[in-house]
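Section 3.1 - Work completed
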Amino acid sequence: MATRHGQPGPAETHSRERFLQAALAILVDQGVSGLTVRNLAEAAGSSTIGVYTRFGGRTGVLDALYERTFELLQEEFARLPPCTDDPATDILAFAYAFRRFALESPARYGFMFERAVPGYDPDPDIRALAQRNTFDPLVERISTATPPGTDPAIAAYLVWTNVHGLISVELTHRERTPPPGWFMATTDESYDSVFRAGITAMTRGLGLLGR
């Protein structure tokens, strides 16, 4: 898509893809701190000039990577089964797809949804695309189940933030030793149970019931 850094021509597509795959690998293996122009050039088997030529610099790399990560999340949602007449089940399936994606690569999730790169503000057009690909599908799942007088977008936003909150806290706890006497077991089963309970409680609290 066109961004503040321009649209690459057809001849550049394959080359840019090689750089993007390298950037994804760096993000997963080293985190955002590894996303330097020099590291990317080395991982892609190129020079720093090659990075500047294709992306205009580090910000262009980050924009392209931001766009690609949301494309990957969209692909995760595309694999969900069609919506049923049970909105609670449909919303839970969406939430679990989000959680699987985050657990697969916490660094990628942090890059997408947290201010992992100080001072970086993604291109507005790419942010709009990210919304259409990942937030709007949740609005669609909720719109048929919102009570009269309830804005589906607001209801979706509340579910969305609940999902993010549960995921972010889980990722943090998985990286740290729990304090003495912590009430929750740090097991996959325990995290899964709390996540399900949290999403279910939000869904019921918003009255998102089938009609």
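Second construct:
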Amino acid sequence: MGSTVSSRVGCPNTNLPMVSLMIRFEFTVEDIARVSFLPEPAPMLELKLALISLRRRDPAPRLSRWRRAALAGFPASARPLWDLVGGFSGALSTTATCGDFDEALETAQRLTPDQVSHEARLWSFHDERVVPRWLRAAADGDRDARQSLIRALSSGYDSVLRPYWPTIRASHHTELARHGRLLARQGAVGVLTSLVAGARWHETCLEIDTPQRREIHLRGRGLALAPTTFWSGPPLLADAPDQPVMLVYPSRSPARLQLEPDHDPLEGVLGPTRAAVLRLVSRPTVTKDIARELGISRASASEHTTALRAAQLIVSRREGKAVVHLAAPLGFDLINANGR
């Protein structure tokens, strides 16, 4: 797009009624430059969608094994969470994007009563009259009710998500790597139209067929993309004033949610230590931390990272005196294909 293009361009014929059901995003030049992905999966977002999957009688087949285990081990302290997702209407909050659960929990503890009420409505309730009494008490500042909510979130995450979180993170990074390769070949429009089946670009608009009819004017706020493991329905939206619009969609690289087999299939290809190193660097990790985590010497850790780098499974960069390692796209693909 050249410099002569206006910074605000409209969808063609936006004054005409939309015939089909779809979400239509109107982009400006600034919005194209502000398309981004969540760098990490968001625990609070995934927890909400996981709870919804647990309540559904027809979950995605790939989730059935996880669902049986999660329901069997669901703790009593997390049962208040069922109230939060009992009437999910598809609304999401842009505040649920933190990539660290403990940090997200601390943020939840600092919410004001008005913010708790707002979050509760976005989680499930649009009619104040049906909000559970305990949740209304939490919104009004009742300390015991607030602590009950925090305990429910914490124990729910520990039971439903934490055992699977390394696999979910690896899946998320595989999805980002896939879109990174697509961005290099086809640009931002190619990435946007690949998110879900049937997505299309028409002049300055992204159109996605959904059961609802909405028109979103980004107006320079940008679009944040959030692939998710637990949602298999049409894309979901979080649209708050003065914040990037968040589009949540089913990941094309979904995690394989299983805790077994105990034997890592990558060990047969890479050997046990090298396989452990590759899985460890699904997040940026320095050489000394690899050595500490795996109980090996720094020289041995360096030898393994050199071999993995030569095979184009990891990339390394120097930051001061430390060397930071991270799985390369091929490495993430290998981790995801052999999830544990």
